[in-house]
Write a structure and sequence with these properties.
334 residues, alpha/beta, EC 1.1.1.179, six-stranded parallel β-sheet, Dihydrodipicolinate Reductase, domain 2, 10 helices, nucleotide binding, 2 domains, Rossmann fold, globular, Gfo/Idh/MocA_domain, eight-stranded mixed β-sheet
């Protein structure tokens, strides 16, 4: 029986996610309903993606008995309210990253998931790409020996996008870009908390972070460093250095389709989309959708690949980076 998806919000990321669903077998995944704050937006989205039901409010989607799991694709200042709405309605949830604005909000979401006994996962899509699976396998097999250093970068000129610039929209490069580098470090070091973290960077006049360099020190003299920026294009790759070699993810490290292990490159191509995409390699969201389905079939309430503790560590480290750089959101003052 197919996993029946409800789509919350009709923005660019929801479009790409719905296109990605169509690259999976129809007998496994079906988008059955979509909701927006304006009914006409939901109706337009439903026509474009051939979805049978369109709602003009999120509450109507929450009440739909034919929806197994809701994909939340609105902007992150609204994630807390949306997650609580759907989970209180006993819906399983895949919520776009970042899961919320700060640690306090993430804890509230995680508590709600446990209280309502529903599945919840933060949509850190990178973790589910075949490249990421292969990286975890290689590390488990100690293919490059003991990992000593990780370096990654993510920078794209996006200062023309209000959601990267305006504080009330959850602006700032960390929560949209830098978190990909941070989650990669956390994945490679298997969810270990760093012994120390140092962040230095520059902010925009709006009070959000623009370009930041972060250095993390882990136990046993292991290090990580990453740079992120919303104002410039960076190499956008990642490298893991071990005592016996290196693993490199070339450009587009957040949606990778190739892997270089000790100089040998392997390609992992994505399926072609049925409609134009808004984001590079957007059909790669198919992998997180399939992870949700497999978890639901097993009766799990969280994914072992992107667990609740993974989301909590990620936001706690993000809060510390923001504190050091001097970024404060209104949600931090509640």
């Amino acid at each position: 029986m197919a996993t029946r998806w409800g789509i919350c919000s009709t923005g660019k990321i929801s479009h790409d996610f719905t296109v990605a669903l169509k690259t999976l077998p129809a007998e496994d995944h079906q988008a059955v309903a979509v909701a927006a704050r304006k009914l006409e937006d939901a109706q337009e989205f439903s026509r474009k993606h051939n979805i049978s039901k369109a709602y003009g409010s999120y509450e109507e989607l929450a009440r739909d008995p034919d929806v197994d799991v809701v994909y939340i694709g609105n902007i992150h200042p609204h994630h807390l309210k949306a997650c609580l709405l759907f989970m209180n309605a006993k819906k399983n949830v895949l919520c776009e990253k970042p899961l919320a604005m700060n640690t306090k909000e993430v804890k509230e979401i995680l508590d709600s998931a446990k209280r309502n006994q529903v599945f919840l996962m933060e949509a850190v899509w990178t973790r589910f790409f075949p490249v990421s699976e292969e990286v975890r396998k290689l590390l488990a097999q100690r293919e490059i020996g003991e990992v000593k250093m990780i370096r990654s970068e993510f920078g794209i000129p996006l200062l023309h996008r209000p959601r990267l610039v305006e504080k009330e929209l959850g602006g700032g490069a960390l929560l949209s870009l830098g978190m990909y580098c941070l989650q990669f470090v956390c994945m490679v070091y298997n969810g270990e908390r760093p012994e120390s973290i140092q962040a230095t960077g520059v902010c925009l006049d709006t009070g959000v972070d623009e370009t930041v360099i972060v250095t993390l020190k882990f136990s046993e003299k292991r290090m990580a460093v990453f740079t992120y920026s919303s104002s410039m294009k960076l190499p956008n790759d990642a490298i893991i250095v071990g005592t016996k070699g290196t693993i490199q993810i070339p450009s587009w490290m957040w949606c990778p389709t190739s892997l270089i292990v000790n100089g040998k490159e392997t390609q992992y191509p994505l399926p072609e989309p049925c409609l134009p995409l808004n984001f590079h390699n957007g059909t790669g969201m198919r992998y997180e959708a399939e992870e949700v389905r497999q978890c639901l079939l097993k009766g799990l309430k969280e994914s072992p690949v992107m667990s609740h503790s993974d989301s909590l560590l990620l936001i706690e480290l993000e809060d510390e980076i923001r504190r050091q750089v001097g970024v404060v959101y209104s949600q931090d003052c509640l």
